[in-house]
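User: I'm putting together notes for a lab meeting next week and I want to include a structural view of one of the chains we've been expressing. I don't have a solved structure, so I'd like a prediction I can at least talk through. The sequence is below, exactly as it appears in our construct file.
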Amino acid sequence: MTQMTDKTIAVVKGLIMDGVAKANSGHPGGAMSSSDYATILFSEFLNTNPDDTTWFNRDRFILAAGHESMLLYSLLHLNGLLSIDDLKEFRQLGSITPGHPEVNMTPGVEATSGPLGQGFAVSVGFAAAEAHLRAKLGSDVMDHYTYALSCDGDIQEPVALGAASLAGLWGLGKLIVYYDSNKIQLAGPCSQVDCMDHRKVFEGMCWQVLEVDGHNQDEIRAAIKEGQLETNKPTIIIGHTTMAKGCATMEGSHKTHGSPLSAEEILATKDKLGLPADDFYVPEDVVANFQSRFDDLRATAADWQNTVDAKLADADFAALWKEVTMPRSERVIDWPEFTPGETMATRKAWGSCLNAVMDSLPTLVGGSADLDPSNQTQHFRDTYGDFAVDGYEARNLAFGVREFPMAAIMNGLQLHGGLMPFGATFLTFADYCRNAIRMSALQELPVLYVFTHDSFWVGEDGPTHQPIEHVSSLRLIPDLIDLRPADAMETAVCLDIALKQEKHPSTIFLTRQGLPVLDPAEYPAVVDGPRKGGYVLKDCEGTPDLILIGSGSEVALCLETAKLLKRNVRVVSMPSTKLFDDQPESYKNAVLPADVTARAAAEAGRTPLWHKYVGLNGVVLGLDHFGASAPGKVLSDKYGFTPENFARMIREKY
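Assistant: Thanks for the context. Below is the predicted structure for the 654-residue chain, given as structure tokens.
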């Protein structure tokens, strides 16, 4: 076995060098130092279905060190999922072998792992999903491992350690992370920037820590087996390796991290490894040996399917299995009703909605970043308990003050499949989550971000906690659905929109302060209008000569302002600029007729975006400066968020 494994590892390293050289771009060094472990894992341990990369109980492998993508692509080629031509198109336009692995593009890729740190955190989400579904479906249906390959830079990102702390607390025994500790990064040796004792740190976070020579095959195999045997703790295997292991003259050089090897170095290295000079050399015996487990893997997948089919005779299991596998868009959700005229903060409306539907959505999981009472998730937590701490069937994920890990873990939960994750915090902390939110959109993951306390109305907590630019900033992320409901009725519709998405993540922005509940008898469009992003909430007789556009808490302000203006006023509620912009031009023109140029908009946040709808000379009531510490009503008056001031601004302009 050792001789064939040596040959396979050499072939993988040859493909890495050739792919990066042909692209004249990439990261060969770390990919080569990780090759021993990854090749052994894929060829001897990873349980997959060779005929179905989406098999539900497959082991998941997340390349957290995404820059080592040519390593993964080489292994996927040996698995029969990528062709040599695919490898030759590495990093080229239109190829399925991009610079960093991207899910939904390359068969066998489980997660888009570009920004360092997030792949590690995402793997925690995968492992949490497996543990939860194993508890609910049974270990005969769900019992796979989650493997991640990490690196020095990956663990330097704080999001990784935040997620690792949760993984240790949650006792995710089927999570095995290999840390390729080659002690080199792009700018030089890690000793320049890091003094961490990784064993002490991870042991302190309740992980099993194993250290191996990352180029010793027997030690690697033994560590993987030991990691599989530890069922109460996640395992990190610290592989002490040499950067660009196998290179003729550049072993250990940081120059191999982010640059191709020279043609001369590649030829000399191939000779050292016992490879011919041929580009993209893959002998048949290596492929045959690599795929020698395929028949057994197929049999395992077939046995699993027979088990599921047999269990479907049980009505309770069948009902849960339907929930786990049902497309989100097909769900019928019964939302609560609200009393018109009452005053209710939209964060409380969200809480009421969550409490009303949580029993009928058994795959809904999530939690708050230590803000359960404020985010209205306390009842959910009290009802279903904290995941792992109260058992793995528990549905509340107590993330603690870890907004970025929360968001990245949610991506892992969604990528795994079978669950509907949500996470909540104050809107001002969305900046901590932002890169993971971007990755949600990039990967087409319909996770739900619940952001409460959405404006200066937070009040006394002051400017650090009062969002100003956050809503507009998040609207800049492509394919992210923004939802800022005007009242409790719109909140329910917006949540229905979010939970039925198949590909788009959603952010819902909710108020701390109370807002009047709109009466469908007076405003019938409120029932379905939010689904189109923007809609005519209150119209006038005849052609309007002024249009007021409001979002969230400022819709009520627009309605009150309209009463002060002796004009034909149309009031438009726009809970989602994304959904409105996606509508046909005919619909958008019907809501905002081009010939009605007198327009004004109001939102308690930055103003520039709204000129897209009111024109460069239109009136926008907003906030382009930071807030202050004072009661919300005091700030509202000071900043001019009153019907009288808004009406004055409009009269002065039009």
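A couple of points you could mention at the meeting. The chain is about 40% helix and 15% strand. The CA atoms of residues 49 and 102 lie 20 Å apart.

User: Perfect, that's what I needed.
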